[in-house]
Every structure is written in C-alpha cells, then in structure tokens.
Write a structure and sequence with these properties.
Order of helices and strands of chain B: HHHEEHHHHHHHHHHHHHHHHHH
Number of domains of chain A: 1
Largest interface: A-B, 35 and 33 residues
Strand content of chain A: under 5%
Oligomer: heterodimer
Mean pLDDT of chain B: 89
Strand order of the largest sheet of chain A: 1-2
Shape of chain B: globular
Strand content of chain B: under 5%
Largest sheet of chain B: 2 strands, antiparallel
Number of helices of chain A: 20
Mean pLDDT of chain A: 90
Distance between the termini of chain A: 24 Å
Structural class of chain A: mainly alpha
Structural class of chain B: mainly alpha
Shape of chain A: globular
Radius of gyration of chain A: 21 Å
Order of helices and strands of chain A: HHHEEHHHHHHHHHHHHHHHHH
Number of helices of chain B: 21
Number of strands of chain B: 2
Low-confidence stretches of chain A: none
Strand order of the largest sheet of chain B: 1-2
Distance between the termini of chain B: 37 Å
C-alpha cells in the first residue's frame, strides 16, 4: 500500500484519463470534459499536499521517490495541466478535436512528467519521459486536417526519437560501467571503484545530458522547438513549453546532482556551454520573428539557458534556483500563450497586437505583465527567478557567463517589449474585440497572480524549492 | 514617529492612488491623481519637521525581513542626501499632474496611473537603504517612463521610447551583475554595512565599472547621453519634467550612495577620467545646445551640460563640490523642470517647438514671459537665483583640487548664459511673429499655480541656500570622512 501512496497523484491523473477514454463517445463538447480534467489536477495537487508522507520515502523497490523535490514539480505539473485544460476549451471546439482523447493525452503526458521527476532510477526516468513525449507527439498533430501540425508532429517525432535513443544509449553505457541504474547506486559505485574518468562513463554522462537537453530545448538540441510551437495548437504549445521544459529540467537536475555527482566537473562545463549557447541563440533568433508562437519558442530556448545557469555550481542553492526558475517560467509562458489563445487567430501574428490596449485593455495589461516578467524586470517573478540563477552562476565564479546572460536579457527586452510597443503605441487595425471566455480569464488570472506574488514575495516559492 | 512607517506610506500612496484611478472613470482620474500626489506631499511634511540635522545616521528607519535566503531585507531610511530628492519628487509629481490637466486627452486614466507609478518608483529609490531595493525601484522606473514617452509622446515617440529603454536597460543589467557580485563577496546589500567593508581594489574597479555604467546612462554622462535629447524632445510635458526633474538625478544619487562610500579606492582610481568626461560634457553639451533650433531639444542638451556640473562636483571629492553637486541636482530639477513646463504650456497653444516660429511673446503674454525670464536667468546662473549657488560651490570645489576643470566649468557657465539668454531673446523679445497674434498665449490660473511653486523654490534656494544645505551638511561630511578615511587621505580638503 505504501508503494501506491507514493504514486497517488499519478494514479488520479491516469485513472481520469482511462475514464475519459471509456466515455469518449459521449463527450462531444470540450466544455463538458475540461472541468473533470481541472478537478483531477486539483485532486492530484491536493493528494500531494494531504497524503504524502512527511519524510522522503521511496517505493517500488527504490525506483520511485516521494520527496519534496518530486512534490514541488508534481505541483507544478498539476497547475500546468489545469491551466492548459482551461486554455484548450475554445480551440478544441473550433478545430473539431475529440475532447475526450485530447484531454486523456494531456493527463497521460502529465502522468509521465510526474514519473520523470519522481524517478530515482534511470529506467523509470526513461519510461516517464517517453510517456510524456509519446503523448506530446500526438498532441502536436492532433488537428488531423492541418498540414502544419502534421509536419510539426513528424519533425518532433523524428528528432525526439533520436534524442530518446541518445538517452537510452547513455543509460546503457552508464549501466555498463557501474552495473546499476539506481541514482545513488551509480554515484556510490563510481566513487568506490574510482572510475570517475572512465571514458565509457563520460560518454554516458554526455549522452544522457544530450537526451535531456532535447526535452528542455537547449541549444544545440533545440531545432524542434520553433516548428513544433508554430505548428501545434496554441494550448498544446503552452502545455509543452511549460511542462516538458520543467520535466526535463527536473530530471536533469536530479540526474546531475545525485547520479553523476562524482562527475560534477564534467557536467558543469557542459551545462555552462548549453546555457551560454541557449541564452545567446534564443535571444538573437527571437528578434527577427514575426509570429508570436515562434517568438515564444525562441524565448523558451533562451529561458532554458537561464534555468540551466542555476545548475552550474552544482550546489543545493543553485538547484533550488533552477527549480524556482522552472516554476516561474511555466506560469509566465502559460500566461503569454494564454493571451495568444485569448486573442484567437489575431494573436498568432505580431501585427495582431497593434493597438490592443485600446480594444482590450485588460488583456493588453496582463500581456505586458508577462512580457516584463519574461524580460526579467522587477517587481515580477521573472526578475527574482533570474536574480537567483545569475547569483548561482556568480557563486560558481562564472562572472563572464553572468554578464553574457544579462546582456542577452537586454536583447530579449527588445523583442518582448516590441510587442508592448505594438499594443500600447500603435493604432488598432480592426476594432472588434473578442469576448474573453471565462476559462481563459481564469487561467490568465492564475498565471498573473503567480507572476506578481512570486516577484514581490520570492521567499514563498524558494521555501518550497527543496533540491534533491 | 518610530512606529509609523512613514517612508513606506509615502512610497506606496501614489501606487494606491494609481490603482484607484482604474476603478473610477476617466473624468475623476485627474482629480484622483491630484489628490493622491497632494496627499503624498502632505504626508511627507513630518519628514522635514522631525528630521534631525545633526544626526549622522539614517532616520525614519523601517526594516522588515524580506528574502532571507539572499540576506535581503526590506529596509527604508533617509539621511540628509536623500531628503531633498524626496521633496523634489513629491513636488514635481504634483506639478506634473497640474501640467497635464488639459494637455493629455487620450487614455487619461492610464496616463495618471503611469505618472503615479513613476512617483512610487522615484520616492522608493531615494528611500531605499539596500542595493537590492534600490535596484528594484531603479528598474521599476523604466516601465512608466517607457509608457509615458511611447504612448503620449510626440511624432517620433516610439523611436525615442525604445532608445530610452535599451540604453537604460543595458546600463542597469550591468548594475545587476555588480550587485550580485557584491552580494556574493560581502554577504549583504545594506548600504551602511557595505560602507564598512572594503572589497579588494581590483574587485572595486570592476564593480565601479558595472555600477557606473548604469549611473552614467541615467545622468547622462558624455558618451552615453544620446538617448536624452530624443527622450526629452518626444516625451509629453510631464514626462520631460520627470526626466529632467528626477530621473537624471537617480544617476547622480547612485554615485553618491553606492560608488563613493562603498567603492572608495575605485573612485580615486577613476577620478581623473570621470572629471575629464564631466568637463567634456559641460563644454560639449553647451556648444551643441547653441546649435539647436527646437526649444525642447535645446533644453535637453543644456541638461547634459548642467548634469556635467553634477558629476564634476561629485568627483572633486571635497565638501564644496559634493554639496554643490547635490544642490545643483535639486536646482536643475527645479529650473529645467520649470523650463519644460513653460515650453509645454506654449506648445499646447502653438503646436510647434521651432524657435523661429516664436518672437515677441513678451508683448502677448507678459506673465508667461516673466516666468520664462525668471527660469532662464536661473538657468544662466544669475546670483540670487538657485542655480548660481550650486554652480558656484562646484566651481570653487574644483578650483580647490583640480583648477583646470574649474576653468572648463566656468567656460561652460559662460556658454550657458549665452544659449539660454539667446533662447529668451528669440522667443520672448523682438517682433511679434504673425502666426502668434491670433492665439491666446497668456497663462490661465491653473498654469500660474503650476509655475508659481517652482518660481518660489528657485528664489528661496537662491536667496537662502541654507534651506537645503543645512539638511545636507552632516551627511555629506560623514560621506566624505568615511570614504577619505578608507582611501587614506587626511581630512583637510
């Protein structure tokens, strides 16, 4: 029984998914299914809070952990799932997507994410991530009659399979050297046998990191992100940019800090390279984008880099900074995508934001808030999160990297606030303003609340972010 | 007064008023903004009454734990250096509300909300006593200014707003790295605690570069001043007044608050280049001002010259120079702010900023021209008016240490008299330009009420400079003793 308690939220989500699939024929409108998904997400979050053991424990033969680290991220995934469900309602009906199947996939992908962050064994980690990505492939191409979505799905599938192969190969090599897949066993074997610089193990570390870097869209494993975000339905892109990135980061942090702890000097250098490349590439390439989702895709690449800065020193404080960053980023990006969704077809193009502050002042104001947060201007959560990760980089002695990161955030200010310029400083092209559905309004309100509270009281979040 | 968090109230009262504006209609927005800014001014009165001019420490201190994991507290407090700036911020904000009464007709609610948000950021910045809070308000200031310039500005407002944003952000992110490095090496970000520590000379130099990058953009110092003419020219009147009145002072205040006490060795190391850049800004700024044909642009370039005096005074590192620099910042805020108000008032009627379109305004609008004459003479440094005192102190401070920079400054004063009086001559005197005859150029009561406080301040400080200097004296002494003791220079400057 205690084993089952450790996976209670996962059980709730996958159970809801199964029920939705069973009653799929009866569910015709998204509006009738979405509340159930939200309820499931809230129930999962509640079970995390109420039924989780007070101390860290592992279940299923020591492969799945129920610790505060996993709980932090599971809470994030519950929030991500609930917001994504709220944001999906209108799109599903207008794109004629089967709501039951769609929501079941969302639920299963979230289950996969939760398994990935709870895993303390490379194989469970792999299974969790695969469950997440397999569902994502389908979600990206779920609008069957849209060529862009199909193309994105195929691209995502091929590149994703390649990344999964890297990850699996890395796991195999690690197992070959250490004879273990359990995180702590790997670390103890490496130190005990003195194989810290074993070439096979180094290759294993590199391959596992590469496979995980794909999930968080860090350069040079980022090529899928712009096409997938562009081709997928906006709610799916929002779900992936927040959830997939957080799951990848969570797995990255745990694998590096626990399993590959003896190899800290090796992966630290790799993380520095990934972070520097991601921040630069993401910021620079986002400048020339004229489509909103594509711009947000490049921005997500840059933010993957910022989040990785926290991992550079390999300390618990740094890991905590990365966790906070992942959390904050999830809500800012969900908010920004939420505005894209709220505006409908008009929101896909940058020009659609012209004069938004006169036609829809409230929507424009929250978008401005999310853009400020993405840029990292106080008093938003984006600033405090960025402050924490840059502090980690400076603590590790990488002041040059910190300077690069902040300079790139000036570059990013240019393209984020260009949207603000369009919204506030130009005349609207069309005057009709779409009515904001209640579900989207609720999602935007939650995201905005997190962005503001996290900025003014950063400690509330930092207390929860307990590293592995 | 120890229990009542007066500084927090003064800081966030405008923000509350700004939020309240959104709940009410556009018709009430102006009155709410006026009430909010006046209430802030009223609440700040006890600061001046209960301020202890003999105390060296911070006063009205408030401290609440905020972010324990970074050892950052929410602390506020003021000394003699910050008090004049808080006064200036509250006064200028009220006048900005008055000056925008009829000039702003679109998105009135948003305008006043942005204005009040700016007031919160300004007051908060001057009341902050940790580098972290200082930075938060510093960055917060960018947002409303960006909107004020970009939404309610002139024809090239978007260009000006983006230029302002990128320049200031580029400077301030370097400050962010600087403050993070400071936090890592010192473990604290409190001004008073940092002043007692002393990072290694090399680290100080890097920190100085990082912080001064931010401050120099805001002042603005010579090579990074190019955003200012655009921003000043395109901003609406209230935006220009806030820019000239407060925003530029944030840079000088930062130098006094962070560079001088915390990085004394680096200040000594970089003293000569900073003095040279200041002198260059004074003379170069003045020459460029002479060539301007647009009234607002002319005043904008004159700001560069006047702010050169401020940095010159700060880096003389003696009492006259630093006191003069602070006084010059206050004076520049009053005089240049008032000049922008004057320009804004006449622009509302004529819709042109070209100097050639004006002439003979004195005949049509005697009251207006009297005010303009007063502020032009103040800007020119006429004895008896406020700017004279500040410039005199700075120049005497410069002659005490580096006479040649004093000579440059005197040259700047001479040029300043030329361009400002020539401006007055072209606008107010001579033949009445045909286009102006039909317009009602004379001020109405509201506009007189907006300009009169500035005129009163200019006269008061000019005739009785002790009204400001008495607040500064002890704090400046403390600042100089602390930084001089650390760099190992004996007192007698």
């Amino acid at each position: 029984m205690t084993d089952l308690v450790t996976v209670l939220p996962e059980l709730i989500l996958s159970g809801t998914a199964v029920v939705l699939i069973l009653v799929a024929r009866r569910v015709r409108r998204a509006r009738s299914a979405a509340p159930w998904v939200v309820v499931a997400a809230v129930a999962a979050a509640f079970s995390l809070w109420a039924f989780s053991p007070a101390t860290s424990m592992t279940g299923f033969g020591g492969t799945i952990a129920s610790d505060r680290y996993a709980r932090f991220f599971s809470l994030l995934f519950s929030g991500n799932l609930a917001l994504a469900a709220l944001l999906s309602v209108r799109h599903l009906d207008s794109e004629r997507v089967q709501p039951a199947e769609y929501f079941a996939l969302l639920l299963l992908a979230s289950t996969g994410m939760m398994f990935a962050v709870a895993a303390v064994d490379l194989l469970i980690l792999y299974l969790g991530l695969e469950l997440m990505t397999l569902c994502s492939y389908v979600l990206v191409g779920i609008v069957r009659d849209k060529p862009a979505g199909n193309e994105a799905s195929i691209k995502y599938f091929f590149l994703g399979s390649f990344a999964s192969a890297l990850l699996l190969y890395g796991i195999a090599l690690t197992y070959g050297v250490t004879g273990a897949t359990d995180f702590s066993a790997i670390a103890s074997t490496v130190s005990r046998n003195g194989v810290t610089r074993h070439p096979m193990l180094l290759a294993g570390v590199g391959l596992v990191s590469g496979g995980l870097a794909f999930k968080i869209a860090a350069v040079p494993f980022h090529a899928w992100a712009p096409d997938v975000y562009q081709g997928a339905m906006a709610p799916v892109a929002a779900f992936l940019s927040a959830g997939s990135k957080a799951a990848g980061l969570a797995a990255f942090v745990r694998v590096c800090l626990v399993a590959f702890a003896p190899e800290q000097r090796i992966w630290s250098v790799m993380v520095v390279a990934l972070a520097a490349l991601s921040v630069m590439t993401g910021s620079l390439l986002a400048i020339s984008q004229s489509r909103m989702k594509r711009m947000l895709a490049y921005s997500s690449i840059a933010h993957a880099g910022y989040a990785l800065l926290g991992l550079v020193p390999g300390t618990p404080e740094g890991a905590s900074a990365t966790m906070t960053y992942a959390f904050v980023y999830a809500f800012m990006t969900l908010g920004a995508f939420g505005v894209v969704i709220a505006l409908g077809p008009r929101g896909e193009n940058l020009n659609g934001y012209r004069g938004l502050s006169t036609t829809a002042p409230g929507t424009a104001a929250v978008m401005f808030l999310f853009l400020l947060s993405l840029t990292g201007i106080p008093p938003t959560a984006g600033f405090t999160a960025k402050f924490a990760v840059i502090l980690s980089a400076v603590r590790a002695g990488y002041i040059g990297l910190a300077v690069l990161a902040v300079l790139c955030s000036v570059v990013s200010a240019f393209f984020y606030l260009r949207v603000a310029v369009l919204m506030y400083m130009t005349e609207p092209q069309e005057s009709e303003s779409a009515r904001l559905p209640l579900s989207v309004f609720a999602a935007l309100a939650i995201a905005a609340a997190v962005t503001i509270v996290g900025g003014i009281f950063p400690n509330t979040l930092a207390v929860w972010a307990v590293p592995p | 007064m120890t229990t009542f968090p007066i500084l927090t109230v003064i800081t966030f009262l405008p923000l509350l008023a700004g939020a309240a504006i959104f709940l009410c209609g556009a018709r009430v927005a102006r009155w709410l903004a006026l009430a909010g800014s006046l209430a802030t001014l009223a609440v700040s009165v006890p600061l001046y009454l209960h301020f202890d001019k003999t105390s060296t420490g911070l006063q009205f201190v408030e401290s609440v734990p905020w972010i324990p994991s970074w050892n950052v507290e929410y602390t506020m407090g003021i000394d003699g250096i910050s008090l004049p700036f808080i006064f200036l911020s509250t006064v200028v904000s009220v006048l900005c509300v008055g000056a925008s009464w009829t000039a702003v007709q679109v998105r009135v609610r948003e305008f006043y909300a942005a204005l009040l948000l700016a007031e919160t950021a300004m007051i908060g910045l001057f009341a902050a006593t940790t580098v972290f809070l200082f930075y938060v308000f510093w960055e917060l200031m960018i947002v409303p200014m960006f909107l004020l310039i970009g939404v309610w500005g002139g024809p090239r407002r978007i260009h000006a707003a983006i230029k302002f944003l990128l320049f200031t952000l580029a400077g301030s992110v370097l400050m962010l790295v600087g403050l993070i490095t400071l936090l890592r090496t010192s473990g604290t970000l409190d001004f008073e605690a940092l002043a007692t520590m002393r990072p290694s000379a090399q680290l100080q130099s890097w920190l100085f570069v990082a912080f001064t990058a931010a401050f120099a953009v805001k002042v603005p110092m010579f090579p990074v001043h190019t955003w200012l003419p655009d921003a000043h020219t395109e901003a609406p009147t209230a935006g220009s007044v806030i820019l000239a009145g407060i925003l530029l002072k944030m840079g000088g205040y930062g130098l006094l608050r962070i560079a001088l006490p915390i990085l004394p060795d680096a200040v000594r190391l970089f003293r000569t280049p900073m003095l040279a850049l200041s002198a260059l800004a004074i003379v170069y700024g003045a020459y460029v001002t002479l060539a301007q044909t647009d009234v607002k642009r002319l005043i904008a370039y004159s700001s560069i010259s006047h702010m050169g005096f401020v940095t010159l005074g700060i880096f003389t590192l003696n009492r006259n120079g630093v006191e003069g620099a602070i006084l010059q910042m206050v004076n520049h805020g009053i005089v240049t702010g008032a000049l922008f108000l004057c320009v804004g008032m006449i622009y509302e009627r004529t819709h042109t900023r070209e100097i050639v379109a004006y002439g003979g305004v004195a005949k049509l609008a005697p009251v207006y021209s009297t005010f303009l004459a007063l502020f032009c003479l103040a800007a020119a440094g006429l004895p008896g008016l406020n700017s004279f005192v500040g410039e005199f102190l700075i120049i005497s401070g410069a002659f005490d240490t580096r006479p040649w920079y004093g000579v440059m400054a005197v040259w700047g004063v001479a040029l300043g008299t030329t361009y400002i009086l020539w401006l007055y001559y072209r606008v107010a005197l001579g033949e009445v330009k045909p286009g102006l005859q039909a317009l009602r150029l004379e001020l109405d009561l509201r506009e007189v009420a907006t300009l009169a406080p500035m005129a009163a301040l200019a006269l008061t400080i000019g005739l009785y400079p002790e009204s400001v200097l008495s607040f500064l004296r002890v704090s400046v002494e403390q600042l100089l003793v602390a930084s001089a003791a650390q760099v190992g220079v004996a007192g007698g400057m």
